[in-house]
Amino acid sequence: MSTRTVIDGDGLILGRMSSVVAKRLLAGETIDIVNAEKMVVSGKKQMVINAEKEFLNVGGFEKGPVHYRQPHRIVRKTIRGMLPHRKAHGRDAFKRLRVHIGVPDELSGAELEKMEKYHSSNLNRRFVTIGEIAENIGWKK
Q1: What is the pLDDT of residues 78-101, one digit of tens each?
Q2: 141 in a structural domain
Q3: Which of 80, 122, 133, 139 is placed for a possible disulfide with 69 were both Cys, Cβ 3.0 to 4.6 Å?
Q4: What domain range is 65 assigned to?
Q5: CA dist list (Å): 45 to 113, 119, 128
Q6: Spatial separation of the C-alpha atoms in residues 112 and 115, rounded to whole Å
Q7: pLDDT digits (tens, 9 = 90+) for 23-59
């Protein structure tokens, strides 16, 4: 059947990690991502936060797009954008994804996969965490 993988998001670059996770979901894996608030987006802090705040003005009250403010929802929506979520196999793949803030009790003993290739230590530029972005656009812990 499908294999279950737990990925530690601490310090991972959001876009690079998301593309790899999307491919693995389409291949049939079930993936849990922990520490979503510690993932990073490259760029100057104020520039990234201002872009997110500007995006909040897009759309209307009853129509989309939906603007998530919680870190785990931001990560889920990023991965969903890399899946064919309007087709059946894309929807099925997206259902196999779970994203968590911190490490939940049921996954505390699991072996965490570290994706060193996509870690922020490989960046030669500034970055901001998803948690900092979320707090600046209205996330209440």
Answers
A1: 999 999 999 999 999 999 999 999
A2: no
A3: 139
A4: 4-136
A5: 27, 18, 5
A6: 10
A7: 999 999 999 999 999 999 999 999 999 999 999 999 8
Q: How many domains does the chain have?
A: 1
Tokens of 24: 């693995």
3-state secondary structure of 113: strand
Question: Closest by alpha carbon to 26, among 104, 89, 113?
Answer: 89
- Rounded distance between C-alpha atoms, residue 45 and residue 133, angstroms: 8
Q: How far apart are CA 36 and CA 74, in angstroms?
A: 9
Indicate the length of the chain as a whole number. 141
Residue that the structure tokens 């954008």 belong to: 81
Q: Amino acid letter at 4?
A: R
Please report which confidence band the pLDDT of residue 1 belongs to, taking 50, 70 and 90 as the band edges: very low
For residue 99, is it within any domain? yes
CATH number of the domain encompassing residue 66: 3.90.1180.10
13 lies in a domain? yes
